[in-house]
């Protein structure tokens, strides 16, 4: 079974493709559906959120690097951005913290984002007498 994760030099055989596909589908099946449904809905349009841009981030009880850790979140997690507050600096210079419903996150570790979904296009536009964009 050691050759399952090794890609051949000349291409992928049908058997190897099926093995990779089954492994990928098994991984997807183990992901909780609640997580996926939460990611797809529940975002307020135009609201401000914060996206984690560094590995692991601690959510603290107070805007202080020595405060108790309430929760840990990881890369690309999105949190509700309630407001910015001034707290104690963990030594990096900035004293800004973001208040979330769960606690406080050191501001430089979050990227501010907004939920502005694209409008659904029902048909391709007509450009120079032809349907399409290019």
From TrEMBL:
It comes from the Bacteria. InterPro entries: TAT_signal, TAT_signal_bac_arc. This is Twin-arginine translocation signal domain-containing protein. It comes from Anaerolinea thermolimosa.
């Amino acid at each position: 079974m050691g050759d399952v994760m090794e890609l051949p030099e000349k291409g992928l055989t049908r058997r190897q493709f099926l093995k990779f596909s089954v492994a990928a589908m098994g991984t997807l099946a183990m992901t909780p559906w609640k997580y996926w449904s939460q990611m797809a809905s529940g975002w307020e349009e135009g609201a401000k959120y914060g996206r984690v841009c560094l590995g692991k981030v601690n959510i603290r009880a107070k805007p202080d690097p020595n405060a108790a850790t309430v929760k840990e979140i990881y890369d690309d997690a999105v949190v509700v951005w309630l407001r910015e507050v001034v707290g104690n600096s963990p030594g990096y210079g900035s004293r800004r913290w973001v208040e979330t419903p769960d606690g406080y996150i050191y501001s430089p570790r979050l990227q501010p984002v907004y939920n502005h979904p694209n409008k659904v296009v029902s048909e391709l536009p007509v450009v120079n007498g032809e349907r399409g964009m290019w």
